[in-house]
Design brief:
Elements (H helix, E strand, L loop, with lengths): L22 E7 L3 H12 L6 E8 L5 H8 L4 E5 L4 H10 L6 E5 L3 E3 L5 H8 L4 E10 L14 E4 L4 E3 L2 E2 L2 E2 L10 E2 L7 E5 H6 L12 H11 L3 E12 L10 H18 L2 H24 L3 H20 L17 E2 L3 H7 L5 H5 L3
Parallel strand pairs: 1-2, 1-4, 2-3, 6-13, 7-14
Antiparallel strand pairs: 4-12, 5-13, 6-12, 7-8, 9-10, 11-13
Length: 358
C-alpha cells in the first residue's frame, strides 16, 4: 500500500509511542470549510499520541483544501478526483492511508480531548472487535442523544435501523442510561473506529450506496464473518448532523429507502428474502402514501423511485452475495420485533421501552 507512513514522526520522542497503535483520523470533506474551521482545532488537540489526521477531499469546489493547507499544515491532504459520495470517497482515500486503526470522522463533529483512548483500549484488547463508535450527542443540545448514532446502532427484523437513545425521530436525553459498553449491530459513520486490515479485508464500503446506511451494511458484513461491533460510551463526541444532505431532503429519502432494501437483499438468507422483502415494499408503500396525503409529494416520488432503482439493481447490479445462512439470529443488536409496530401502534418511543418487549 503506497500511503502514509505507519509512524508519526512528531510522536517518536514520546516514551512508549511505538507500542501504541497508529490511528488515522480521516475526515471526508466536500465544500466543508465552515465545519473544518470550527471543528478541526479540537481534533488536532486530541490527546492520543500516535495519530495522523487526514483530510480526504471529495472534489470540493470551495477553497476548503487551501484553507486547511494554510491553517492546519500538519493535516495530510488526499484529493479525490470526483465526488463519489461517502462510500467511494472513503474507499479511494483509505487505499492511500496506512494505519492500524481508521477513524471515519464527519467534518461536523466536535470531539473531546480524550475521545480516542477509551475506544482504542477496548478494541485493542479484543481482536474480534472490528468496529466501534463513541457516544454521539447533539452539538446543539449536548444533553440529548444525536440521531446518527446515539449510544450504538441496532436494527429490527425488517431492516429498520434505530439506536440506543433514538427511535425514528425521538431522541432521548442522555441521563447515563446507556453508558454501558455493549456490542451493537452497527457503528455510526459519523465517528466510526475500524481496524484498518479488516476494513480492506471486507472490501470497504459498498460504493453503490453513495451515502446513507453504507456503514450499517459494512458492520453487518463484518458480523457475518464473525467479528463484533461495539459502542464505548466513555468516549463522547458531538454531532451537528445534516451537514451535507439535511433532514427532509428528497435525495436523502431516496438513498435511505433504496440502500436499506439493497442491504437486506445482500445480507439476508434467500429463504427470508422471499417473504420479507415483499412485506418491506408494502410497508414502504404505506409510508409513501402517508407522505403524499400529508402534502409531501417529493417524498412520495423519492420512495417510488427508490423501489424502481432497487428492482433495477437486482437485475443489473454487480455485487457478490455472501453465502446464505441463519447467522441473523446470532447477530448482536438484532431486534426480532418490528419497531414500526412498536413505535406507531404501541406508542413505545424509547429504546428501553421497545427492547423490554423481548
Amino acid at each position: 500500500m503506497n500511503g502514509l507512513r505507519r509512524n508519526n514522526d512528531e510522536a517518536l520522542d514520546t516514551a512508549g509511542i511505538l507500542n501504541l497503535p497508529l490511528v488515522a483520523i480521516v475526515i471526508l470533506n466536500w465544500n466543508g470549510k465552515k465545519f473544518l474551521g470550527q471543528f478541526l482545532p479540537a481534533v488536532l488537540q486530541s490527546t492520543y499520541s500516535n495519530k495522523i489526521i487526514v483530510l480526504a477531499d471529495n472534489a470540493s469546489t470551495d477553497d476548503s483544501v487551501n484553507f486547511v493547507q494554510q491553517s492546519f499544515p500538519s493535516v495530510k491532504i488526499i484529493r479525490n478526483e470526483t465526488n463519489g459520495g461517502f462510500a467511494k470517497g472513503y474507499n479511494t482515500a483509505l487505499k492511500q492511508v496506512e494505519a492500524d486503526y481508521y477513524v471515519l470522522l464527519n467534518s461536523d463533529v466536535e470531539v473531546e480531548a480524550n475521545w480516542i483512548e477509551p475506544v482504542i483500549k477496548l478494541m485493542d484488547a479484543d481482536p474480534l472487535i472490528a468496529a466501534c463508535q463513541p457516544k454521539i450527542l447533539a452539538y446543539d443540545n449536548k444533553k440529548s442523544f444525536e440521531y446518527a448514532g446515539a449510544a450504538g446502532g441496532w436494527i429490527d427484523s425488517f431492516g429498520y435501523p434505530f439506536t440506543r437513545g433514538r427511535v425514528f425521530d425521538t431522541c432521548e436525553m442522555d441521563n447515563g442510561q446507556y453508558d454501558s459498553v455493549q456490542a451493537c449491530f452497527w457503528a455510526t459513520g459519523a465517528a466510526m473506529f475500524v481496524k484498518a486490515g479488516l476494513y480492506h479485508e471486507i472490501g470497504g464500503l459498498d460504493e453503490y450506496f453513495f451515502a446513507h446506511q453504507e456503514e450499517i451494511d459494512l458492520c453487518w458484513r463484518l458480523q457475518r464473518r464473525g467479528y463484533k461491533i461495539f459502542v464505548q460510551p466513555a468516549s463522547v463526541v458531538y454531532h451537528v448532523g445534516g451537514g451535507t444532505l439535511p433532514k427532509g431532503n428528497n435525495r436523502k429519502t431516496f438513498l435511505n429507502f433504496r440502500n436499506n432494501l439493497v442491504m437486506l437483499w445482500k445480507n439476508l438468507p434467500i429463504e427470508v428474502i422471499v417473504w420479507k422483502i415483499p412485506i418491506r415494499l408494502l410497508l414502504d408503500g404505506m409510508a409513501a402514501w402517508k407522505q403524499l396525503f400529508s402534502g409531501d409529494a417529493g417524498s412520495f416520488i423519492a420512495i417510488i423511485k427508490a423501489h424502481l432503482h432497487f428492482t433495477g439493481w437486482i437485475f443489473f447490479g454487480k455485487y457478490q452475495k455472501l453465502p446464505a445462512g441463519k447467522e441473523n439470529f446470532r447477530l448482536k443488536g438484532w431486534y426480532h420485533g418490528n419497531i414500526v409496530w412498536d413505535y406507531f401502534i404501541k406508542k413505545k418511543k424509547t429504546f428501553s421501552e421497545i427492547i423490554s418487549n423481548k
